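Chloride channel protein
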Amino acid sequence: MEELNRFAESEAESIERSQQEEIDGINDPESNDLHQPLLKRNRTLSSSPLAIVGTKVSHIESLDYEINENDLFKHDWRSRSKVQVLQYILMKWLLAFLVGLLTGGIATLINLAVENIAGYKLLAVVKYIDEERYMMGFLVMAGANFCLTLVAALLCVFFAPTAAGPGIPEIKAYLNGIDTPDMFGATTLIVKIIGSIGAVSAGLDLGKEGPLVHIGSCIASLLGQGGPDNYRVRWRWLRYFNNDRDRRDLITCGSSSGVCAAFRAPVGGVLFALEEVATWWRSALLWRTFFSTAVVVVVLRVAIETCKSGYCGLFGHGGLIMFDVSGVEVTYHAADLIPVAVIGVLGGLLGSLYNYALHKVLKVYNVINKKGKMHKLLLALSVSIFTSVCLYGLPFLAQCRPCDPSSLLDSSCPSTGREGNFKQFNCPKGHYNDLASLLLTTNDDAVRNIFSINTASEFNILSLVIFFALYCVLGLITFGIAVPSGLFLPIILMGSAYGRMLGIAMAPYTKIDQGLYAVLGAASLMAGSMRMTVSLCVIFLELTNNLLLLPITMLVLLIAKTVGDCFNPSIYEIILELKGLPFLDANPEPWMRNITVGELAVVKPAVVTLNGVERVGRIVEVLKNTTHNGFPVVDSGITITPPLGSSPNGASELHGLILRAHLILALKKKWFLPEPRRTEDWEVRKEFTSIDLAERGTTIQEVTVTKAEMAMYVDLHPLTNMTPYTVVESMSVAKALVLFRQVGLRHMLILPKYQAAGVFPVVGILTRQDLIAHNILDVFPHLTTSKGKKGH
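Predicted structure tokens:
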């Protein structure tokens, strides 16, 4: 007991000291060097980590994806009838249907709101421009953008900090096994919807694609748990989904539905979830995600057909991102592969450069945001004003271009409305401003314009250079402010600009349409920054509706990803590292094969174990003085018969692993025994259910235990997971990491290589923090010779 007290005191002091250092680092902007992570790292293994979720600093924990095979689980599984199993299967499909239905409906709502708000704003601005009241037009535009940004930023700063940003890195982390607090709550969902409408309508250089992925995941999580925490529906059928494993599957369906809703790409949405966000996958999950995306497509199609009848205000000529280039004949020869390869190389170079620059900008923004909520607001509003000035002022630098005689006949040039390829802006009759056609419009219409086919002479090269330079700057300074934002559309805008410029340069030597060059440029920059290939290829095919683009799109994506990988990780991996989320990569570092899990166990604090029948006082003491979430349960004094007929010896038997939440549940229910003994099955089932074991959230501070109860006992055997994953202490860290990640573990027990009487059955416990590369290198600095090189 004295040893436990000394260990508990030393560990508590260590944790308190490390957490205080982290908090000091967060509160002291001057202490955060721009070359360091956003949060200071602990110098010990298995520490309680801090991470940035959205824009909120939170303590994070791992999720329990492993099946907890204790006596209650086994009884519940054996007692399920065929009807209950059928109910479980039907509920999975019903929830997948509802996820697709609600995600499609909310995506339609967002697009309706954005197109109408931005549309009427632009109509008001154009009205003043037609009257040559340019200053009034600017004030209307800047004022509207300022107010819309203010609404989005206020909601994110004061009500739901986790709603800021795209949300995709946090979803990747959750599906990797990291619990991200408040990431999928009802408040986050509402703020994400309203904030996305405000930020996109304000003309900021961001898209609604990332937020839609987050929205779909929020819907899935809320459906799986029966609603918000305070108003949860305790429906009997939903008890099957009161666990992290099924919630993981639902959130995977939600993320794929969000991508489908953003791009109207059902297959691309499924492949995005498979390639980018999901860590764990199986065929049954593939079917349900595809079913969800199919439902989303049906909802969007119904909405578009309805809006074409004129019931949706200004929304009716697209609205959803759909860049149809099916009307152009794609013909190319061997010589055309050279400029296509050049686009791929440019995409890889510019994508990695964009990742590097954004990494630095996010560090600067972190220093600003840590100064307080008002600084977050001022930063967002400053970006809004700068964006408005650029979008309205830069078209005055462009020269007016005469309209083509054929377009004069059908009145398509010049256009004075809120959309069109040939905006008149400040030009005389019969002329148009090509830069205004790209800037004085919504981001979706800007992409449609720059992707437009059979318009070889529409854009001046100088206008495209200005457009590209502007969106490079806006793409860097807009991402990271306290509003919901997505990276897809800004990268598409930048990539399409240099793609079109290359198309103009190659016009005398190729027959490929300039609009297709813009499509290939956008694809190359996305692959160079996000490092996706298969899902991006399918998404662009579904976007452009032209299967003939498949060969050259594949070539561009492969080249861009290969070039980008030579310089830095993908943008989402960079953001995960900046936020401090302990993401387990699929490929272990090569030097991890040179160190064993036993060596990790040596540098960790001594493992804390509990007896199978434990005294209440010791359980309370362990829970109060440690932060561990799992404890090995060991039965001491077991009589075993050694081989070769030797005399029996007393030994310790590893019964399994018990979770902290289950210990607190036993204390909360006061399931105490006056004397140490094993309980009967009926006693356990009378007091506990499998639903009780799935509940989380109670802390040891909320449990009251009297002095008399401290001397009583608890039988831990029925609550213990009797089949935890175990490894031998001689296993390499690389092999343990692969097992830990693929199975989705929270704890992995390390057993001694030699089993004998008198040898303690557990050497240590591995958790997620122990397998993070930089944590290991902090403890074993001699391994830094191979730091940064990925394994294969």
